[in-house]
Structure formats: structure tokens, C-alpha cells
Amino acid sequence: MNYQLYDYGASIRFVYEGGPDIYIMKQSIRKIAVVREDVIIMDIINRSAIYFRRMETGLPSSVSAENLVNILNGWVENCLCNQNEGSGEGPAE
Length: 93
What we know:
The chain is mainly beta. The chain has one helix and seven strands. The chain has a single domain, classed as PH-domain like (Roll), CATH 2.30.29. The chain has one helix spanning about 65-75, and strands at about 5-10, 10-15, 20-25, 30-35, 40-45, 50-55, 55-60. The strands form two sheets. A four-stranded mixed beta sheet has the order 3-2-1-7, with no helix packed on it.
């Protein structure tokens, strides 16, 4: 099975052979971590976790499971989801 993950700003698009695309809101991701050797977990609030193997992931390309986790965590950390939250700024008038 071949997996591809794409950074879509506020979400991550998870694509895999033979299945529908899954869009995961970054703010709903609890954690992304290596479970064992080549298996990665994407733990999602109020949903089942997604497990996938790094060796079966075409995009983004990575040299190890830890490297892929770092890439994905970087996407989540750089999310623009709640940029104005708590800033006291309202919508532009």
C-alpha cells in the first residue's frame, strides 16, 4: 500500500491506494509519534488513530520514521489554525 501526505494549511490530506482521501484538521491531532521501528501513529482527538508504515509512504519522502515524524510535527506546529485566537483582535472592519 502506498501512502501520501500533503500539507494543506489547516489540515493534512492523507491519501492511500484504494481508499478515499482523508482530511485531518491539524488542531485535532493529539500526537504523531513512532510506535515501533517503521510504524507511525497519528493520534486524532475524537477519532480512531491512523497507523502507517514509513517505508510505504511516498510523500513526503524521508530517510527514517523519526525524520517523517519530525516533518509531520513541523507541519502541525506551523499551522495557521488559531493565529488570532486570544489576540483580542476581531475581524477587520
